[in-house]
Every structure is written in structure tokens, then in C-alpha cells.
Amino acid sequence: MRLKKIYDFNKIILEKLSIKHLEDIHEYSQIPSFFKYLEFKEFNHKKETVKYLKKRIKENDFESSFWWAIKLKKKNKTIGTFVIHNFEKSRASCEISYGISPLFQGHGYFKLIVNNIIKILEKNNINRIQAITHFKNKASIHGLLNCGFKKEGVLRNYFFDNKKKKYNNAVILSKV
Ligand SMILES: CC(C)(COP(=O)(O)OP(=O)(O)OC[C@H]1O[C@@H](n2cnc3c(N)ncnc32)[C@H](O)[C@@H]1OP(=O)(O)O)[C@@H](O)C(=O)NCCC(=O)NCCS
Questions:
Q1: Does a structural domain hold residue 18?
Q2: Residue 169: inside a domain, yes or no?
Q3: Exposed (0-12), middle (13-18) or buried (19+): which is 118, by Cβ within 10 Å?
């Protein structure tokens, strides 16, 4: 699948993830609420964000994984990340994951990105897009449902919450 390093979705730009996005990503990675439904906790030291970002950049081969920084055009600021991963050529399927800074949530940016990504993936003849999210993550679940995803089921004890040391169920949704 051939995807671009840069997409312009009006208010939002997706830009291939690189180390130049570090400062902004570190800014929101220190906010505990961002990690409420994630498996790990906030990064208090920049070296943790550097380690995380370098790992993502390494796996970002633009063949099976496609990581972008989400940039807010008017502020020229990175406000999150979006990834298409687990691309399976023979099945024409892939998965999406994402995160938007709590300071920029609730503005419809998620919906804008997902709706545009769906169109791009459909042009690439993708047959199935899936997303797996914490069962209580209402913003994620509602956002996906609003973009035409359907709930398929519950994955029991799927996530391990490193903060509370407990397993949590996940919801799997898809767009076909
Ligand atoms: C998931 C995430 C990207 C959604 O972005 P967002 O900016 O919060 O999205 P929105 O505010 O546009 O909300 C999406 C939809 O869910 C709805 N929603 C938000 N919070 C809700 C809540 N607590 N209960 C019910 N619906 C809710 C919104 O009204 C919106 O619906 P609308 O499009 O009809 O208005 C964002 O919350 C996030 O990054 N969270 C932290 C990281 C994370 O959990 N990532 C998911 C990992 S799988």
C-alpha cells in the first residue's frame, strides 16, 4: 500500500513521524489524563518520550506501519499521533490507533482524520479497518461509531494496565 508522508485535511496535517516532533509530543505526554485508557502512564522525563518516539520511528517502515504526527495547521503544533498498523496485504486489512493531546480534544479533529483516512484506505482497496480500544474509552468508541465503524465484540482481559496492575477488556470495532 502506498501512502503519503504528508496529508492535508484542512485544519489538520498528518506528517510522517520524526524526531522533530519530540518537543510537542513530550508536552502532552506529561499529562496523566491522556493515559487514562492506555496501558502505561505519563512520561515525566524527556528521555522516556525520546525512547518511545525512537521506537515508533524505527518501526515506521511505511510498508506495514505508518505513523504520522497530527499537526494543527493554525498553530503549527503537533497535537497527537495517528498510526495505521498491522497492514495485511493478502487480506487487504489494517488497524488504526491514535492519540490526541487532552488540550486539543473535543474539537472534531479525530472525526476529521478518521473520515479522511477511511477515504484514503478505500482508494487503496482496503477491505477492512479495525480498531481495538479500552472498553470504557467513550471518546474513542463514540468517535469510531460516528465514522461508520461497527462494534464487533469484546476482547476479554486484552489490555494490561501497568498503573493499576490489572487486565481490562477491550472493544473491537471495524469498518468494512
Ligand atoms: C480517542 C481520542 C483520539 C478522541 O479524540 P477527541 O478529540 O476526544 O474526540 P472528540 O472529542 O471529537 O469525541 C469523539 C466523539 O465521542 C464523543 N465523546 C467524547 N467523550 C465522550 C464521553 N465521555 N461519552 C460519550 N461520548 C463522548 C464526542 O461527543 C464525539 O462525538 P461527536 O463526533 O458526535 O461530537 C482522544 O480522546 C484521545 O486521544 N484520548 C487519549 C488517547 C487514547 O485513549 N487513544 C485511544 C487508544 S485506542
A1: yes
A2: no
A3: middle
Cα(137) to ligand 1 centroid in Å equals 8
pLDDT tens digit sequence for 39-84: 999 999 999 999 999 999 999 999 999 999 999 999 999 999 999 9
Cα–ligand 1 centroid distance for 72 (angstroms): 17
Is the residue at 38 inside a domain? Answer: yes
Ligand 1 close to Cβ of residue 37 (< 6 A): yes
pLDDT tens-digit readout, 5-18: 999 999 999 999 99
Question: Containing domain of residue 25, as a range?
Answer: 6-127
Indicate whether residue 35 lines ligand 1 (CB < 6 A): no
Closest CA to 119 of 172, 175, 67: 175
For ligand 1, atom 14, name the residue with the nearest CA: 143
Q: In CATH, what number is assigned to the domain containing residue 105?
A: 3.40.630.30
For the chain, what is the domain count? 1
| Helix 138-146 / helix 109-123 crossing angle, nearest 10 deg | 50
Q: Is the CB of 159 under 6 A from ligand 1?
A: no
